[in-house]
Design brief:
By secondary structure, this protein is of the alpha+beta class. Helix content is 71%, strand content 8%.
Length: 292
């Protein structure tokens, strides 16, 4: 009979440990994914910003040497990621392919202009800086017009600002929820051993002596849960990198290492803190209060 009871108690203990580990792993995994989102919000926004072209249209009177000099100066400018010259003939071919017919057959001439598409670095893609760059380019007398999508730039800048703010707010809320969930799992685990805690106290064991094995056991469970969460984070990050290599998600190894280490340490700290206060609570209770 005693053997069956011991086996039952052992199964309950293993089940309790398993649920704690899974709870910690899931919470830290979601917290880590949110951390990845925070780190890569700017990178994703920069990726889209650098896809927006500033087009410099040139007058038909522009000389080849002037065009070459402008293209080179734009390509070497501090704000430029890349610059590409598009002749009016190439533009006409692309336009004809887009509409499915040769519009020059109707017009009898090519109305398009030579142009240079300039793709800027993300830090310079803002309404103010684009206005400044456009004004600088327009000082050349052979430049006819500088065109870019002003409404799109304004909308993108505003949305990036809003998204960054909300990501920080949600991260803070989720961190608070993570603390609550892990704390609840640990408290339930310690609650199951409240009579053991009180028995040890009654035979003269000090509070620190009683807390020590509980804290160490919880920390071990926290380490296992944190490692499972990190493995899940690594798998998701690798999968995203394979699907979107242009985002270069694995490029910032120092930041990623800091994030993984941060998630691991946060998990251990929350577990330690929760176990400390949970055991302290039962240590401070009277024996008759353990039944409520």
């Amino acid at each position: 009979m005693a053997t069956s009871f011991e086996k039952y108690q052992k199964r309950r203990l293993i089940s309790s440990y398993f649920s704690v580990v899974i709870s910690i792993a899931l919470v830290l995994f979601l917290l880590g994914l949110l951390g990845l989102l925070v780190l890569n919000t700017k990178k994703v926004a920069d990726h889209f910003k650098e896809k927006i072209a500033l087009t410099v249209y040139l007058k038909d009177t522009a000389k080849e040497v002037e065009i070459n000099q402008l293209e080179q100066s734009l390509a070497m400018a501090e704000y430029t990621k890349s610059a590409e010259f598009i002749s009016k003939e190439t533009a006409a071919e692309e336009h004809s392919e887009a509409i499915g017919e040769n519009f020059m057959d109707f017009l009898g001439y090519n109305p398009l202009q030579n142009s240079i598409d300039v793709y800027l670095l993300a830090d310079y893609v803002s309404p103010e800086k684009l206005e400044e760059i456009s004004g600088e380019i327009m000082t050349r007398n052979f430049v006819d017009e500088v065109v870019y999508d002003k409404p799109l730039i304004a909308l993108l800048t505003e949305n990036v600002r809003k998204v960054s703010l909300w990501v920080l707010v949600i991260s803070s809320i989720f961190l608070f929820i993570a603390v609550l969930l892990i704390n609840s799992s640990i408290r339930l685990s310690v609650y199951a051993k409240r009579f053991t805690i009180k028995t040890m106290q009654m035979v003269g064991a000090t509070k620190s002596f009683i807390r020590r094995p509980f804290i160490w056991n919880s920390v071990k469970l926290g380490i296992i849960g944190a490692l499972l969460a990190l493995i899940g984070m690594g798998a998701v990050l690798y999968s995203l990198h394979q699907s979107f290599p242009e985002l270069q998600l694995l490029e910032d190894t120092i930041l990623l290492g800091a994030l993984f280490l941060g998630v691991f340490l946060i998990g251990i700290f929350i577990v330690w803190l929760s176990t400390f206060f949970a055991t302290q609570r039962f240590l401070n209770l009277r024996t008759d209060e353990l039944y409520y």
